[in-house]
Amino acid sequence: MNAGKSPTGRSADPDRTERLLIGGEWTAPDGGHHDVLDPATEEIVGRAPEASTAQVRAATEAARAAFGPWSRTTPELRARVLDHTARLLRDRLAPYAELAQRESGATTATARGMQVGVAAARFARYARGALEPVETPLPPQVNPAGPMGKAAVIGAYAARRPVGVVACITSYNNPWANPAGKIAPALAMGNTVVVKPAPQDPLSVYRMAEALQEALEEAGAPPGVVNVVSGTSAEVGAAAVAAPETDMVSFTGSTAVGRAIAEECGRSMKRQLMELGGKGAALVFDDLDDAGLNAAVAGIGTTFSFYSGQICTAPTRVLVQRPLHDRLVERLTHYARRLPLGDPRARSTVVGPVISAAHRDRVESYLDLGRAEGARLVTGGRRPDGPDTARGFYVAPALFADCTSGMRIVREEIFGPVVVVLPFDDEEEAVALANDSDYGLLDYVWSGDVARAFRVAARLRAGGVGVNTIGRNMEAPFGGFKQSGVGRDVGSYALHAYSEVQSVVWTG
């Protein structure tokens, strides 16, 4: 391998050519490099490596070689590594957040708080998680004498063991929090990882791996605990999934890609954790007072601003009880129109660009489709024409009304700043409309009647439900029903996701 040292704490550098991390060595890629663009300016942020399938296999082999010794390390050592990584991320927050902003298009507050800040918090959380008990004692069982032997008391406990080598395939919308949420609990449980970042913004993942590798080396960990391979070709991720050394795949992305990964995993019965698409329903009942309605509008309005709608948990389908329909549409329209859109570095900006020209074209194709289907575009959907947005991949927040449940803009995940509104008459119709979806990740209920809100929540076919809030509890399990995913992570649930359960039985 052609190895080299990777400098620490640096932000964006358009002249820097990144290297792969394989077996503890920073390695030149066989396939050269591709440019990573700033979605706000279309300028080159840096150059990301293109791994060959042979290099992906080298990474999975390195992870396999490291698994034995790493899985036998003490929980205290693993906790120290993860805690050290969290401190390094916090120490380098400013340059790392600058890089995150430049390659993902996030606003400054989002890049600092929700990307690098959350990544550091997740490493710190799983430093504690490494010390959580892995054994659950079970009640003894008294077996009478019989064909199996003498009478005996049989003791048992259930223990969580590491799965092995985990291929972590991450999303572009949060190049810090998403991979951290995979890598940290996997390592806490004693697994080793091969990380394949999204091609649109992989540089942040390399900076995260750089900090983690420093912490691993300081602790004397074996080489190959963490490996990073990237590329624009689908063959890179496919090679990581198919490698015989890979025991588990943790994937965040589209349902279509998740389905293909699941088919490959099924051939060799590999463990899967899938966070896939979403088309979250926000059910708004007419028993809200004015303050409650404003809270609903503000919650739904985050779809327009947070990651520019590029988030699977967004409440993109708004189901509103008919007497409240016109007021809600009016207030959402006002909310969308007053959101400052432009350069994410500007202090006043709330809505930045989407990730790429190709994705902007995809969002715009859905805007055209919505109009063709007969929906009414109330506001937005155009490319802004201001001097700060002459370059970059911008789409003004869009709101559709007069929608019906069969429209593709209502049924398909757009993954952009687009909200659709449908009326309903009563609770039964609201629940039926909400559940009439291939997806089931996060739904939301806004109601002035708390009993009704919780009653409705229990009937929604979604992995999570927000009652009068879009807030998240970061110890609550996260995952989806139906085509929104398989498995649960976050909090201690992630430690379970990255472990297998072994029973130990004895006689006393």
From TrEMBL:
Signal peptide: none
Keyword Flavoprotein found: no
GO molecular function, one term: oxidoreductase activity, acting on the aldehyde or oxo group of donors, NAD or NADP as acceptor
Residues annotated as transmembrane: none
Keywords, in A-Z order: Oxidoreductase
One Pfam family from the record: Aldedh
SUPFAM superfamilies: ALDH-like
Ranges where the Aldehyde dehydrogenase domain occurs: 26-504
Family stated for the protein in its record: Belongs to the aldehyde dehydrogenase family.
Name under which the protein is recorded: Aldehyde dehydrogenase family protein
Species this chain originates from: Streptomyces benahoarensis
